[in-house]
Write a structure and sequence with these properties.
With about 325 residues, the chain is α+β, with helices and mostly antiparallel strands. The protein is built from nine helices and twelve strands. Strand 2 and strand 3 form a beta hairpin. Helix 5 crosses helix 8. It binds heme C and copper (II) ion. The site of heme C (HEC) has 27 residues, from helix 6 and helix 7. The site of copper (II) ion has 7 residues, from loops.
Amino acid sequence: MFENYLMPESASTIAPRVDALIWVLTGMSAFFFFAVVAALAFLAIKYRKGSDANRDLAHPDNDALEITWTVLPTILAVVMFVVSTAIFLQYRQIPEGASEIYVTGKQWMWKLQHPSGKREINSLHVPVGVPIKLTMTSEDVLHSFFVPAFRVKQDVLPGRYTTLWFEATKPGTYHLFCTEYCGTDHSRMIGSVTVLEQADYQRWLESDDSVMASNLTPGEALYAKHGCVTCHDGGDAARGPMLAGKYGTEETLNSGETIIIDDEYIRESIYNPQAKLVAGYAPLMPVFKNLINEEELFLLIEHIKSMEDTEASN
Ligand code: HEC
Ligand SMILES: [Cu+2]
């Protein structure tokens, strides 16, 4: 089709809406551009030096004309704003229950991790027709995650999490680019997103996995290795709060404030535990800043999320 020559392939739920918006904006801009240029050319020729056009005509006020050229563009601008905002909100609002994938940008590669712990580099496999949420961070400088076929792009920042979501509509393999200049090999920081039918995705997830070899998930292994379990298992000797079943709930800090336990908060609790202390607890937790890297942090967060509140249920 005509559009395929001008636009990248379109393979996500939001792509057709983004394209429609671009076409309407481009069409409107082209219309006004040509209208203004045509008027300019016409008047320039008509009133060129030496032409015998009548120059002493004093135009009477024309209220109808002035109101039209004020009100019409105002309405157009408001319509553009409303339509773009609706699309932007859809783009930013991550659907409930989206399947979560963690992304780490690093000079010069993308590292991706599935909820099962399966990991990939510069290649992402996702099922078709399922909303996918990406939680992203960088180990060094600014990067930006861009999949043209999905019409989604988001900067990836060191020191915090940014998110992005999409739902692929067509199986296939699509480009993945870094679109924030990040150093010498920025142009090679590329990869692919492979969209699979759901059954194929399941098969892919279960295929060969060295990571799944042990009974422990990688997050569980780190949780044990760094001794988190000794302070956070809720036993009598535990010196920290019980973490099982706490994800997404509200926590009271010793400053009296409350905070929702989310990815960003857990990250801070591990890298800089003293920044926000849980009410009733001493600042005993060691700083893990230099011991746990961003990728391992994702594994720990995934593990904390997956821990069921077994105490409460019996
Ligand atoms: C020496 C004991 C100790 C160890 C080891 C420890 N923590 Fe903590 N942790 C604490 C204490 C005490 C608090 C509460 C005070 C605070 O907020 O720093 C806490 C708070 C937290 C919180 C915030 C909990 C909440 O309810 O708001 C998280 C998340 C956390 N720790 C994760 C971890 C992880 C992950 C590890 C392992 C990498 C770990 N901790 C290792 C003692 C420990
Ligand atoms: Cu980059």
